[in-house]
Known about the structure:
- InterPro entries: Vgr_OB-fold_dom_sf (IPR037026).
- With 157 residues, this protein is of the alpha+beta class.
- The protein has 2 domains: 33-71 and 112-131 and 139-157, CATH 2.40.50.230; 75-111, no CATH class.
- It is 23% helix and 22% strand.
- The chain contains 3 helices and 5 strands, in the order αβββααββ.
- A hairpin with a 4-residue loop joins strand 1 and strand 2.
- It starts with 13 loop residues before the first helix and ends with a strand.
Amino acid sequence: xxxxxxxxxxxxxxxxxxxxxxxxxxxxxxxxxxxxxxxxxxxxxxxxxxxxxxxxxxxxxxxxxxxxxxxxxxxxxxxxxxxxxxxxxxxxxxxxxxxxxxxxxxxxxxxxxxxxxxxxxxxxxxxxxxxxxxxxxxxxxxxxxxxxxxxxxxxxx
Length: 157
């Protein structure tokens, strides 16, 4: 009986090298999860902002800005508190009857505004049909796209 011949599927590891060196890095570069960026415009009424990612591309150029990034209510609420504090400064305190104590500058500086540096999360699915508290329909297979971004944290006001 003859000896079975050894068959080598990838004798020079060309496929393995391609997967490790080319395919997996390309695939990973298309999956977005989080980024740090600077707010370049802010629409409080619509609760959205535009964010310029701070990480540069490999050639040193800026990345494209993210448009219509969702700003959650808890971040908008900080601005409401700051606006109230500015208004209340010097007005009569409703229960004490005297002037409202001045809000410390440390609190006033924490408003979310154009120029704030933020931590942005990227949703697992598209958010095109999301309107608030209701379930929503996903119409595409888009996943981990920078088109579906949400501000998660203000890092530097």
